[in-house]
Amino acid sequence: MRIEKPPSLDAFYAAISAGLHKEGVPCAITGGLACVEFGISDHTEDCDLICSAEHADTLLKVLQASSYGSCDCQYRKSSPPLDARWLSGGYTAHFHWPTSSSAKPFLDVFSVPPRVSSPWEKDVIGRFAGMHTVAEMKRTKRRKDWDQATALGLAMLQAEDSRGWLHIFDADVLRELVKKQSPGPAESKQRPALQLAQTGNPLLERVIQTEVEFWSHLDKIRLKIYQASHEQYGRKVLKMSSAQPARLMAQHEQRVKIAEKCLPKRPLEDYGIDRMIEEARQTTAMGLDPTILQFLPQVTFHFQNPNQIS
Prior knowledge:
The chain is built from 14 helices and nine strands. By secondary structure, the chain is of the alpha+beta class. It is globular, with a radius of gyration of 21 Å. The chain has a domain at 9-128: Beta Polymerase, domain 2. The strands form three sheets. Strands 1-2-7-6-5 form a five-stranded mixed beta sheet. Strands 3-4 form a two-stranded antiparallel sheet. Strands 8-9 form a two-stranded antiparallel sheet. Helix 10 (204-241) crosses helix 11 (248-262) and helix 10 packs across helix 13.
């Protein structure tokens, strides 16, 4: 798939997605590009791609054959390898095409999209992840992601998808919504804050702020866990990067060899998911009325992956 004149980034990412679908690989574009597709944001240049871990080898071959202008795909910096053993443990593989063009393709590949509570494969719209998947991935430490999650939640409710109630993090918007319709019992149970909106409880705004703080602390701890597990591997990869072969497959083979020696496969399990959640809860609880903590959501199932590969 060598094209001397680079296409638009959107067309380039679409071609990669099409190539994977042609090979029978389940995949979906998520993140910023999905938000653009759904009319939630207006611009992004990077591509986030979810792909089943068992198809990592096929994806690697597709990337090897994908050129942007005269540039071939390469791993970025100290990226983990695109290998089922580490993808299924929650790592993200990072790629780029080192072009001198102002448009620079960057691709991040997930197999276990963070915080996603249901199978993403069942929630795909065309070549894009569904709004529920995208919204759950937006529960990060970045403020802009929460505004996008709320916009996605509203779009879901307009499409008569009741899961949209789980993604609206604006108290005023929730108060207006419950005047016209009510969340279902499943959503109210999963997210206790919705009960406050229905009863007009003045605690609603503070509880939503606490929800955001809680998810943000979870995101920070999760990232620290992966950064710590990646530290030794990253040093070794960067040490050999100056002499690193240019071809993608050679880079990949070297990274796999290093990973097999020093990159833990399941860092969240090693650390303890319950431990991570409790640490986030304790940090969130500092200085708060304990009553507010009663309305925090149950989140364990957002961090469990039933499809891990040994």
